[in-house]
Amino acid sequence: MFKKITLKNGLRIISAFQKNTQSVTILVLVKTGSKYETKEINGISHFLEHMFFKGTKKRPNTTIIAETLDRVGGIYNAFTGEDYTGYFAKVSSKHFDLALDWVSDIFLNSKLEKCEIEKEKGVIVEEINMIFDNPMSYIQLLWKELLYKDQPAGWNIAGTKETVRAITQEKLFDYLKSQYVSQNTVVSIAGNFKDFNTIVKKVEKSFSKIKNKNPKNKEKVVENQKSPGLILKEKKTDQTNICLGVRGYNLFCSQRYAQEILGVILGGMMSSRLFIKVRERLGLAYYISTEVSSDPDTGFLVTQAGVDNKNVLKAITTILKEYKEISQKKVPEQELKKAKEYIEGKMALSFETSDNLSSFYGFQEILEEKIFTPEEIYYKIDSVKAEDILKVAKEIFQPQRLNLAVLGPFKDKKDFEKILKL
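Now predict its structure.
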């Protein structure tokens, strides 16, 4: 079970005790990311995350920040998404105080020095170059661009080379003051630790300097697709990477669990329909998978694959046939049961580690502002019927929701347009 308390300043603290572990994870989540940015400062959330590892007054440089937890064998990192940014430290339980001091220090006291900002611009530009040089990553950027066009949901989380180079110390401090505030922050702790009240007192003391003000809200995502969408990016590659899928449901739609199960049945496991058909039977791809993404304001189901250039049209046609079949015929009970138990089994295994458990509770709070226990989620998954899967499939596998992103050595869109019947 978990416990939650909201302090007077709006900071939320969540804890989940695990007896049979020797670790503890402290995860700090702030409700801001690339969807909260403007075009001018695209990438600033990600840039700020990088800068938190460059030095504080107490730990003045990157080496000291890293050595603090390296000396005790800790695991630490940070990440930026569209709707959140997170910082975590996972350590042996006896080093809880050290981990809390470290996380709160970089979160609240980073210096953001001009010289470090200038150096980090080069690092992030190379990170962007790395994404563009990796077709499996680049196709995902194209997919988001296709769905959401020129709005925050369609931009690269890392920004562009131009916006990164234009970021200044002043812009970073302004964004920090606007978004890194108590009402926007959740501290999620999981593992083997002392009693909850002691935890609360320590967190409250460590985060006493956090600002208390109303954060900036994000713009509403506009989705007005009326016909199939296609984006083709010519790139000399030995295989073509594709993302083929549909707009779906967000986190607050009741159909999200049926949508998740649908994704698993199609391409979420090695015995899924698309894995067996496209890889094992037809030998068209080494990697193929279906992902379901549900955010607070957006959602989609997408199948991603890398196929031989000469087989790309056959692969797309095969995937579309599977989409059509599952939207016309109910999933057999045994297949539905397998998908449900796959999801529940994966969840159960993840709860064995403190970092996954802190994420489970923390992300629910930061994104939905409501927390379900594992048992409650299992119940929601178990309640999904074959009729629900069929209904969702019929609703989302419609031409006006369909999108195809292609990255490969092609100049002409005609063949792809013909498949999508544009």
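The first helix runs from residue 44 to 51.
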